[in-house]
Amino acid sequence: MKRIITLTVQNRPGVLNRVTGMLQRRRFNIESISVGTTETPGISKMTLVVEVADDQKLEQLTKQLNKQIDVIKVSDITGKAIVARELALIKVASTPQLHNEIQGLITPFRADILDVSRDSLTIQVTGKPDKIEALIALLRPYGIKEISKTGITALLRGQQPQSSQVADISQFSM
Prior knowledge:
By secondary structure, the chain is of the alpha+beta class. It has 4 helices and 9 strands, in the order βαββαββαββαββ.
């Protein structure tokens, strides 16, 4: 089962290496990882999507992450009300004659063309992973030259009365 785990960590050299090394040693597969600074100087947030077999393995993972010296907080946000997004850059084969056709195709996805050349377009799209995968599927017939994705980044939603917007981890399949 895929789980979304967030870590609040000290922003120091080697923290990412220690966290990923621990996951590797314990044989957890990282589906995606994103890391960035927070509103607090010296503090970063990691968002991991990991494959976890059962609740016992999840508990083991959480305990091991909490033991890491630079880890301040570990949260399993799977199944909670979250805001989660991913960014993808997609380079698509294109001739000048196809530019307008591809523009029309990407507009409903709120995607943008970032770079235009004689033989390709580079497109930026952000959103839920299933949205990004749907756009990639539509662009595939044109010939995808290259794709780069950030991985999921997520935050808990603000306090809401009995929110029905609980995240279904299946929508975050990689």
